[in-house]
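Would you mind writing out the residues of a protein together with its fold in token form for me to study?
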Amino acid sequence: MLPKIDLQNMSIKDILKTVLKPLNLDYSVQPGFVWISTPKKLRTETFEELETRYYVMTPEMFQAVFDEGGTVMAMELITPDPEKPDEVVSIISLPNEVSFLLTIVDPVTGETLSFARYLTESRRLIALNSPMNLDKSESA
């Protein structure tokens, strides 16, 4: 239970912070509504359009993912261009919850929406995630 709080002359933003923080909750302003949940769920359940970004990763950077507890979920060979069936690219599927990106799930269905794939030949990481999580990982 919250103690009595005087909310007069406070902005809506300050009221939400004051009321939600003791309950270990936070909020996110979405078009047409305010989403209230735990801080982690706010980062993992998104109403934002997901975005794909590409990163060049040196072998040392890729190894750092494993040094921090990352694992390879699967390794597959694919043909990226149907016109060139002899060209094969190996892709490493990383766990959704790697240290630098949280898994994004649909808030209604719980379906996993995000992914991270490492293209071994080009040393590129392909990440599909929310812009907020991608920005946060880039600034870390």
In short: The radius of gyration is 20 Å. The longest strand covers residues 51-56. The CA atoms of residues 46 and 103 lie 10 Å apart. The chain has a mean pLDDT of 75.
